[in-house]
Design a protein that fits this description.
The chain is mostly helical. It has helices at about 1-10, 25-45, 55-75, 80-90, 90-105, 110-135, 165-185, 190-205, 210-225, 235-250, 255-265, 270-285, 295-300, 325-350, 355-375, 385-400. The longest helix is centred in the last third of the chain and has 30 residues, at about 325-350.
């Protein structure tokens, strides 16, 4: 199952745009194949671990049940846009990946397949961002990436997502995978390749020209190096290298400094967020407990948009640029609470387990991945499949590398 699941997650960077390539939704087919293979493996392989419900799994099941009932109540369960958002963004597919990862990746070789796939993807995304930033359109693949009529943020590095925020957070996640590879791989050439991918991903983050991504990347580095005791000595050097690297990049790439300055001073995105977020807040005040129902925001928000005295009314019809506020408006306090509890328990379960050095490397990478996602979700809709799947899959891989879930502290016996 490691092969189809890894391939499916990597292929999900094209999710939503397969038609532009003349292909079906290969990522969903591959993930379904991987899930089916997990079932077959658990039956045929006597050494494969068996699935056991944990506290995190029960929380994920409760959150999944709530969002399905909310969509049924709102009448959006059969709407394709709402259904795919439920699968990809809210997390029914990521939840499933977390559940099967300890079985699908219980061998070191299986985890190395996923790690190599993420590093290779990071190389592709980093090079794509570089070619977009330098204007070398002939080297950008697939060609729809440079088509301004497709997606948004055509003036930035947006990659196969055709959206800069998703591109940026995905670059951070692939960069974290390259960091894990540097810690685990022993072959010199492979380590050089992982280091090059890490540098490309860092470069690509700058070229997205997205402030939330810059902030997320900086905090991911600071938090990871700050909370991990054995890495704290690298915090100041890493920050110094980052500052010098960004400065050199601004000087070396023609027009980049002007683009960064223009982007930093652009008020239109801020107005969009203020208008849409204000409508979402009014929706929460109207129905705080249950919300308006899953997938209802684009239509229901029109009633709550108001012209402010000091900013123009822009962003009409767009999604909330804050995942948590969107869930609060659509699912209410109960729905958001269930999702937050499930997500926190999932990450906590992975960070709590103890295992060999390999598991420790994956755990450290998960810290950066989680911080990047939390920050990006505060400023962007993050509707794309890949950046939502990786944190949950990564958490499951940590548990696989650790040999399974630890017994919770409140169930431990004295001296156990």
């Amino acid at each position: 199952p490691a092969w189809p699941l890894s391939a499916g997650v990597v292929a999900s960077v094209f999710s939503g745009n397969w038609a532009l390539l003349g292909l079906p939704n290969l990522d969903r087919l591959l993930i379904l194949l991987g899930l089916a293979t997990v079932v077959l493996q658990s039956r045929r392989d006597p050494l494969a671990p068996r699935f056991e419900m944990s506290t995190a799994h029960w929380a994920l099941l409760a959150a999944s049940t709530w969002v399905v009932l909310s969509a049924l109540w709102a009448g959006t369960l059969t709407d394709s846009t709402s259904t795919f958002a439920m699968l990809d963004r809210y997390g029914l597919v990521p939840f499933a990946l977390f559940a099967v990862a300890p079985i699908a990746f219980y061998k070191v070789r299986q985890r190395m397949i996923l790690l190599a796939a993420l590093v290779a993807l990071g190389g592709y995304l980093g090079l794509t961002a570089l070619f977009e930033g330098l204007g070398i359109d002939a080297l950008v693949f697939p060609s729809y990436i440079i088509d301004p009529s497709v997606g948004i943020h055509a003036e930035r590095a947006r990659g196969p997502f055709v959206e800069a925020s998703a591109m940026g957070v995905s670059l951070i996640m692939c960069g974290a995978a390259a960091g894990v590879a540097l810690a685990l791989w022993r072959d010199r050439l492979l380590r050089i390749a992982a280091g090059a991918v890490l540098a490309l991903c860092a470069l690509g983050v700058v070229l997205t020209l997205t402030r939330a991504i810059w902030l997320g990347a900086a905090l991911a580095v600071i938090v990871t190096l700050g909370v991990v005791r054995e890495l704290r000595r690298y915090l100041i050097p890493a920050l110094a290298v980052g500052v010098v690297g960004v400065g050199a990049l601004l000087l070396a790439v023609p027009g980049l400094s002007g683009s960064v300055e223009e982007r930093s001073a652009d008020q239109r995105p801020i107005w969009d967020r203020q208008n849409i977020n204000a409508a979402a807040v009014e929706m929460v005040r109207e129905r705080p407990l249950l919300g308006f129902g899953w997938g209802s925001f684009p239509e229901a928000s029109q009633e709550f948009l108001r012209q402010a005295d000091d900013i123009p009314l822009t962003g009409i019809g767009t999604q909330v640029h804050n995942v948590y506020l969107l869930y609060l408006a659509e699912l209410g306090v109960i729905g958001l609470g269930l999702w937050l509890i499930a997500a926190i328990l999932t990450v906590a379960a992975a960070l709590y387990v103890r295992g060999p050095p390999e598991a420790r490397a994956w755990q450290i990478g998960l810290i950066g991945v989680t911080v990047a996602w939390v920050v990006a979700a505060s400023f962007a809709p993050l509707a794309q499949a890949f950046p939502n799947a990786v944190p949950f899959l990564w958490a499951g891989v940590v548990i696989a590398a650790s040999g399974g879930f630890d017994v919770p502290w409140w169930r431990r016996r004295e001296g156990r």
